[in-house]
Design a protein that fits this description.
This protein is α/β, with parallel strands linked by helices and about 220 residues long. It is built from ten helices and five strands.
C-alpha cells in the first residue's frame, strides 16, 4: 500500500488545528516540515518552495509545539531509555519513553548531559502524558533510582525483552539523525534546534509511521481500534 506522508501529515495538522491561517496550503507546510525533519536546512527548503526561511522555521516550531500530539491516558507499563547522539562532533543524550502496550512515543528530549536531575525532569514530562502512575521499565543506569524514588514511582530493571521495542526505536532514530544532525549547529543553538526536530519526529512516529508490530498502522490509529 502506497503511503503519502505529506498528505497524512497535512491531515494530522488539520485535525490538531496547528495553524490558524492557511494562506499557504497546509500540504506545502507539511512538505516543508517533513523536509526539515529529513535534514534539509530552512534556507534550502525556502528556496525549493519559494517562501522565506523564517516561515519554514515558524511552521516547524508550530508543529513541534503541538500539545495534543500525545493525549494523557491511563497507562500500564512505560519503557524509558536514553542514548548518545553526535551532533556536529558533540555528544548529546536523547531520552525516550514509550507506552509498551500501544507503542506510543510519550516523550522525546535531548540534553547536554545525563544525570539524576535530567532523569527526574524527563520523568515528570512523561507523567504529564499519563492519568495514573504506571510501572516503568529501565536499564541499570545509575541516574534513574533517585528520580523514581523522588516521584514515588515503581520500576524494575530489564536489559532485553520489553525494552527491545524502545531499542528498535532508537535504531530508527539514529538512522534519521545521521541525515539531519549535521545541519544542527550545536554550539550556536544548543539542543534547541535538535529538540524541535525530535518533536516533529515524535509526531511523525505516533501519527504517520506504520508499525509492523501493531498491524502495519500508526500507534495513534491502533489506540482507536
Amino acid at each position: 500500500m502506497f503511503i503519502d506522508p505529506i498528505r497524512e501529515l497535512a491531515e494530522a495538522i488539520r485535525a490538531m488545528g496547528v495553524f490558524r491561517r492557511n494562506k499557504i496550503p497546509i500540504e506545502e507546510k507539511a512538505r516543508a516540515v517533513l523536509l526539515y525533519m529529513a535534514g534539509l536546512s530552512s534556507w534550502e527548503i525556502a528556496e525549493e518552495l519559494g517562501v522565506s526561511h523564517a516561515s519554514v522555521l515558524d511552521w516547524a516550531r508550530a508543529v513541534a509545539s503541538v500539545p495534543g500530539s500525545v493525549h494523557p491516558r491511563e497507562r500500564r507499563l512505560v519503557a524509558v531509555d536514553e542514548t548518545e547522539l553526535k551532533v556536529n562532533g558533540r555528544i548529546v543524550y536523547v531520552w525516550a519513553a514509550m507506552d509498551v502496550d500501544t507503542r506510543e512515543l510519550l516523550a522525546l528530549e535531548a540534553t547536554w548531559s545525563r544525570s539524576s536531575l535530567h532523569a527526574l525532569l524527563f520523568l515528570r514530562k512523561v507523567l504529564g502524558r499519563c492519568t495514573n502512575k504506571p510501572l516503568f521499565v529501565v536499564d541499570r543506569g545509575p541516574w534513574y533510582g533517585w528520580a523514581f524514588r523522588s516521584l514515588g514511582l515503581s520500576y524494575y530493571h530489564e536489559t532485553f525483552g520489553i525494552r527491545s521495542r524502545i531499542e528498535r526505536f532508537f535504531r530508527t532514530l539514529k538512522r534519521r539523525t545521521k541525515v539531519f544532525s549535521n545541519n544542527v549547529n550545536a554550539r550556536r543553538l544548543g539542543v534547541r534546534a535538535l529538540n524541535t526536530i525530535l518533536s516533529i519526529f515524535q509526531l511523525y512516529y505516533n501519527w504517520l509511521r506504520h508499525h509492523k508490530g501493531i498491524g502495519g498502522i500508526p500507534a495513534i490509529a491502533a489506540m482507536s481500534r
